[in-house]
Every structure is written in structure tokens, then in C-alpha cells.
Specification:
By secondary structure, this protein is of the alpha+beta class. Helix content is 21%, strand content 31%. The chain folds into 2 domains: 252 residues, QueA-like, CATH 3.40.1780; 78 residues, Thrombin, subunit H. The strands form 4 sheets. A 9-stranded mixed sheet has the order 2-1-19-18-14-3-12-13-17. Strands 5-6-7-10-9-8 form a 6-stranded antiparallel barrel.
Length: 351
Amino acid sequence: MSNTELLLSDFDFDLPEERIAQFPLADRSASRLLHVRPDGLDDLHFYDIIDLLRPDDLLVMNNTKVIKARMLGKKKTGGAVEVLIERITGETTAIAMTRASKSPKAGSFLVFEKDGHVEEVEVTGREGEFFALRFARPVLDVLDFFGNVPLPPYITHAADKSDETRYQTVYAKNPGAVAAPTAGLHFTDDILQRVKAKGIDTAFVTLHVGAGTFQPVRVERLSEHVMHSEWYTIEEETVRKVNEAKAAGRRVVAVGTTSLRALESAAVEMGKIQAGSRDTRLFIKPGYTFNVIDALITNFHLPKSTLLMLVSALAGKDRIETAYQHAIEHEYRFFSYGDAMLLEKNPEMQK
């Protein structure tokens, strides 16, 4: 099947609602881990990941930090409004999705109140589907006080204090994401120490996950899909480590689809990447040739999602279908607070 013949319906599956994890486990590393081998499946736990990683692997993680991107307020003229920050564009500016009975107009103000404090935010215009906002003080300060953790739409409970910790990796560093790089949620400080003790090298990228990651694909022919944009940064040290690993024939293992997408987006030639910060709209689907990544740690993804297409490109569509059916039958937990998989690149998919 050629890329232009790929259809959205090819990536659908039936998922019982009870398989969607609503809360994280008490112990991050106690999540289950499905090892998808070329010739079979192994049911493990995430703390077994150490046994599956090789001493000469390079483990690449996304150190983005989830911000309190959801704010509830009202328009200055009246009427409730919900704001979901998509991206911080400057110290006092951002673009956001808004939900209101009538869309706010340029020049109008949104008002947020909490504990006797009032914040007014100006709507300065539109940028495509988003609204441009200007804050009177640093955006992150306003969000930290007035905002809430933006849990995914399939999680039904309102975010609380525990989510502020658990919907965040233990190595989160650079604020800007409105969704967590969820494969990293399984790592604990102890697991990272064991990674280091085994001699496994680590590196970081920063990709600020946007709300677009939850937007459905609205076209049947995937060749017509316009991928949402995300901002990423790769430092020179990570470039050096990745290029050294590739030159030595060592595996580059991405923790999460966001780490994978940043590295593949930055590739300028086979096995080479370049440092810098830029936007990416890279849409990885079956037929894509991977330049950097050899293996992937990831969670289970939504039906008809671009992430399901990505893992199908890496491991093979048939293997993914088999793995997902196995996971459903064996009661794995799906999505952000759910269980994990380890996938190796299928060489047959790269010909």
C-alpha cells in the first residue's frame, strides 16, 4: 500500500472504555510493559526495561515541562470563557484555543479571578484557529496562579494536586507543554539510576507538546492530512551523542513519540541531525524511512490517531494490530496514564 492509498479507517480499532486509564498507578514503574519483538510478545512490567536496554544504547528523553495551560474566566463584556494555551510565544504573549458562546474579538479582554486576585488578558487577534493573547505580566506566572493542569479529554476527572505531580516526568525541566510526553511518566529516579549504573547513555530534547496532539484526523485519505505544528529544541550535546551512537552502530532509543519526532525532524541526512530550535509538522506514517531511531518506548495510542500511524511505521502495521489486540485481551491500561510498550524498528518496513 503506497502512502497516498493509506486511509484513516485502516487505523481504527475497538477499545472498551474500561481500558482507558483514568488515574496513574501509585508506583510509576509498576506499569505493565509489552515488549513487541519481531517474532512475539512478552508481558513484563516497566521496571524490567533495564533488562531490555543494552549497555551501549543511547536513551533520548523529552524534558519538556507541562504548564497549567487551562484557565476558566469570563469575557469583560460577560459570558464564560475557557482558555487552553497552545503555545507561549514570548514572555507576555501566547496563542490559545478558546471556548465561549461567542468568539472574543481583537481588542477585547478576558478576565480571570481567584482568591481576590484579578487578571485581565487582551485578545490581540487571530492566528489561524488560535487566538493571540497579551498578558500584563509573564505568562508562566499568570498560569501558575490561575491555571490548571490540562488533562487529556478522555480523562474524566478534574485535575487536582496529585495530577500536577503525576502528569509530569521526573526529569521535566523546560516549561511549555500542554500535554505530557507520557512514555516518560513511567520513569522514576531509581530507574534512571539503574540506567546510569548499566552504562546506558542518556540525552535530552525539548519538544513542547501542543493541544493539537489530541485533535482528530478529519480526512479519510491520509495524504490530505495537515499535521499540527510543534516547537522543538535540540542542543549540540545531544547532536554529538546521537551522531556518535549512529557512527558506532549503537541503538538510539527514543522515550516517547515526541522524542522520536524531534530527532527525525532534525535529521538532515541519513543518521545525521543538526542542533537548533524550529517548528515541525512531520507526519510519520507507514512508508516513512527512519533516519535516527532504532527503538521506541511508548504508551498505547488512540484509534485513528497520527501516533498510531507513527508506531505502525516503525514496527509494522500488522505487528501493531497484533500487539494492540493482545493488550486489550490482557487488560492493559491505555493512553496517558496507562501502560507502555517497547518497539524495535522493523527492518522490513525500511526497504
